[in-house]
Write a structure and sequence with these properties.
With 294 residues, the protein is mostly helical. The chain has 14 helices and no strands.
Amino acid sequence: MIAPLLRSARPRQWVKNLFVLAALVFSGHLLDADFALTAVAAALAFLLSSASVYLINDVADARRDRLHPQKAGRPVASGALPPRVAVSAAAVLLAGSLAGSWFLQPAFAAVLAIYAALNLAYSLGLKDAFLVDILIVAAGFFLRAVGGAVAIDVAISTWFILCTCTLTLFLAAAKRRGELDLLREEAAGHRPALAAYGIPFLDQVIGVLASATIVCYALYATGVGEGGLSAGHRMQWTIPLVLYGVLRYLYLVHRREAGGDPTALLWHDRPLQLALTLWAGLSLALLYGVKPAG
């Protein structure tokens, strides 16, 4: 059962838990060992919790997944993993993550519990609620970022929240559009909420959120207002990379019909990987290696 369990835990999706480390990096504590160890422990707690959610989701969606050209091979849907084993493993992982998070920081445990509760509600029914499904998918990313800040006990800036919210909503809306592109007339049979969406509507939503993401990040990077980034306002040089990344993602969604799985795009699209790597490297250099003039 080890291999099917690991597949159902979706290792490729674990990259999402890097959002937990965002507060560590942008608060300036990356090189502080105590802060770094706490943040990594928080990321591991989210990893275990998200793995439990994926297992429950696979059990709840087994019938629908068998109708999906890509999801039919999932262990529970294909019969390789008995539902009873998946649920038992999910309970153990969730209990372990919540117990560990409580010892790490009680406030962080509360954030993790909210994340788990929202995603379990999503798996057990809210995924069929129009617009609510997108908000919950985005909330999963947002709670990771907030949880990372709470775990290391640093202030959460307004711009950090706005950037995280707009970006995650953008990715969630693009994910729904990708599912509509892939399933077409069979979309409603796989997930009833998809029947309420339409490509034109989602294109408008995606356009608005993409613009909001770029504007919020630009204001954050130039240090405007409360909670802007430091490094002598030189973080503005990362704005072109963010602009390219968002536009590249839009291109993949609209021209390649590849927005159904944001994580898969990150693993497979070389230009997107290069932009993200350059952004991360430049950001670290500006925040930690370059001293402001004077």
